[in-house]
């Protein structure tokens, strides 16, 4: 092959690759937008999913819901670590802070789509949401007014809500 032909072939391959990816990104964005219409806060949902690893490869409502659930699982682990670290800063509240860490460690066991067929998935996932409420109750009973806590729980709840909305939609699609 002469150098001119090689250059032309290379340019053609580059154009195909360059033109393909914006189309794929646009399709991914449309899929995420469609998913997020099921959410209470579509804008937040879009932000969470676009920042979540795996969303660009997820297929359909179920795939994006799995990505959202994995994101909440990671956030739950981060929350458990957050509360564990606060026990050093606020040793007078170590008991309720350790409870909170425990609640957020437990949350991931409820974050999946196992119950979709029998209609119990939303109930299962809601149990994970209840763990945040248990944490807030434990802190309130101990009169632990720690300024960093409320924003962290709010962020976790926002991410949780994205996943929960998806679970509701997937369960509804399954006829439950």
UniProtKB/TrEMBL annotation:
Q: Name one GO molecular function term.
A: enzyme inhibitor activity
- Pectinesterase inhibitor domain location is 31-155
User: Signal among the record's keywords?
Assistant: yes
Q: Where is the signal peptide?
A: 1-27
InterPro entries under this entry? Answer: Invertase/methylesterase_inhib, Pectinesterase_inhib_dom
Q: Which UniProt keywords apply?
A: Signal
Which superkingdom is the protein from?
Eukaryota
Under the heading PANTHER family, the entry gives: PECTINESTERASE INHIBITOR DOMAIN-CONTAINING PROTEIN, PLANT INVERTASE/PECTIN METHYLESTERASE INHIBITOR SUPERFAMILY PROTEIN
NCBIfam families (alphabetical): PME_inhib
Q: What is this protein called?
A: Pectinesterase inhibitor domain-containing protein
- Organism of provenance: Turnera subulata
